[in-house]
Amino acid sequence: MKARVFITLKNGVLDPQGKAIHHALEALGFSGVNDVRAGKMIELDLADATSEADIEDMCRKLLANTVIENFRIERLESAA
Amino acid sequence: MKARVFITLKNGVLDPQGKAIHHALEALGFSGVNDVRAGKMIELDLADATSEADIEDMCRKLLANTVIENFRIERLESAA
Fold first, then answer.
1. Are B59 and B8 in contact, with CB atoms under 8 Å apart?
2. Which keywords has UniProt assigned to this entry (chains A, B) (predicted)?
3. Which of A24, A57, B20, B70 has the fewest CB atoms below 10 angstroms from its CB?
């Protein structure tokens, strides 16, 4: 089973990486960019028995820093 | 308009960050993890006039290194 975890900074947390990307886009001449936020995506290839709760546990214990980050889990059921 | 860009390493490109996450998950006692790939997600808040081609241009020129990375664009239409 495959699963994707999307990790984003919480609202209100400063995002210097996003700011740098924003400035770089403007320097390259792209107009109409209002805001940029940078996040992470982690693709997991898991045993089929892995439950949603297990994945959430991985996020809380390792993948995301829940003080400043939100995470969202997307399970991609493997074709049987 | 909001758009998300997902950037992943191409198949066959070594992913030391993913490997490190994989080892850390195993060290924490999570079994059944076959593989981990680390990627990036960039959330863009754009002017409504921005076209798909513009976003693709941003990816090719700045956001992704197309030699080793693939990108996927997801447009989230703003509620009018």
1. no
2. ATP-binding, Cytoplasm, Ligase, Nucleotide-binding, Purine biosynthesis
3. B20
